[in-house]
UniProtKB/TrEMBL annotation:
One of its GO terms (molecular function) is oxidoreductase activity. It comes from Nonomuraea zeae. One of its GO terms (cellular component) is cytosol. SUPFAM superfamilies: NAD(P)-linked oxidoreductase. CDD domains: AKR_AKR9A_9B. It comes from the Bacteria. Signal peptide: none annotated. This is Aldo/keto reductase. The keyword Cell membrane does not apply. Keywords: Oxidoreductase. The keyword Oxidoreductase applies.
Length: 336
């Protein structure tokens, strides 16, 4: 496992992150405690050091399980959790990104995780009703109190993240060092605004669902794969989903790899800022996914995969590219 600093911080994190959303059996199919222990041990043995969870994962069981499993080795891991999601749907102040919910959520997470600080505290989703100034100041207070080391944001527009970090710079508050977003061959939206912003501002990108909810795992391209049952079924996938998954399978066959490894390697290889989050329910799944760290996709394979997605940057990016020769003439600076 290789390591990079997370964004512009000095925090060293492994190239692949362990997602703990599957830790616990509450609220549907998940992993029981013994399997979670085996997965964490396997991840650590592979050199992984960053774990991602949230206050709401498995109704809190994910944090509780991690608290138990990290006893005696907490300092060896970069531990991140999130807040925003409601802790009590009958209480209007038990959700959102305001100061009151931040304080209560952080204390709840620290208690469950059996620690006095988290390495990265993530805003789980943009809250339109809370001024971003309030959120940034409240996060900075948590950092100054020593309960949080770094802060990040998940699932928010690029303009919100940019404004938040501009405010942090002006006021001397702790800026976001990380951005958490979905990213896979089936969902490349972040390439329009979010990924360029993250690269420009020095944000690490932790990418969730690099297998597109399992659509790119090979389950739907192997003979005898699941046809019905579960959250994702063969019938729920679009024609485009099936077509991209087929190309992923073909590339995997050519390289002697698995479809999951190819899909994860593609996500990881798009930018040095990107760290895919691996979410597995069984040790065997995680072991297969971790092998993506040793897979380098040849340029021709990457091109084949990307062509299959039919993705376009669209306006204004395509318009600017098309009109630049006419607009700038001799003043246009070409690629280095």
């Amino acid at each position: 496992m290789r390591y990079r600093t997370l964004g512009a911080s000095g925090l060293r994190v492994s190239e692949l992150i362990l997602g703990a959303m599957t830790f616990g059996e509450q609220g549907g199919v998940g992993a029981p405690l013994p399997e979670c222990r085996r997965m964490l041990d396997l991840y650590a043995e592979a050199g992984g050091n960053m774990i991602d969870t949230a206050i709401n994962y498995r109704d809190g069981a994910s944090e509780q399980i991690l608290g138990e499993l990290l006893e005696g080795r907490r300092e060896s891991f970069v531990l991140g959790t999130k807040y925003t999601v409601s802790r009590d749907r009958a209480d209007p102040n038990a959700a959102g990104n305001h100061r009151k919910n931040l304080r209560a959520s952080l204390e709840t997470s620290l208690r469950r995780l059996r620690t006095d600080y988290v390495d990265v505290y993530w805003v789980h989703m943009w809250d339109r009703d809370t001024p971003i100034e309030e959120t940034m100041r409240a996060l900075d207070d948590a950092v100054r109190a020593g309960k949080v080391l770094y802060v990040g944001i998940s699932d928010a527009p690029a303009w919100v993240v940019s404004r938040a970090n501009a405010l942090a710079q002006w006021h001397g508050w702790s800026p976001f060092i990380g951005l958490q977003v979905p990213y896979s061959l089936l969902q490349r939206d972040i390439e329009r605004e979010l990924l360029p912003m993250a690269e420009s501002l020095g944000l690490g990108v932790t990418a969730w669902s690099p297998l597109a909810g399992g659509a790119l795992s090979g389950k739907y391209t192997r003979p005898g794969g699941p046809a019905t049952g579960g959250r994702l079924t063969a019938e729920s996938l679009s024609a485009r989903d099936h077509a991209v998954a087929r190309v992923v399978q073909d590339v995997a066959d050519d390289l002697g790899a698995t479809p999951a490894q190819v899909a994860i390697a593609w996500t990881a290889g798009r930018s040095r800022a990107v760290h895919p989050i691996l979410g597995a329910r069984r040790v065997e799944q995680l072991q297969d996914n971790l092998a993506a760290a040793d897979l380098t996709l040849p340029p021709e394979s990457r091109a084949r995969l990307e062509q299959a997605t039919g993705f376009a940057l669209e306006f204004p990016h395509d318009f600017i590219a098309q009109t630049s020769p006419w607009v700038f003439g001799a003043a246009r600076v070409g690629p280095n």
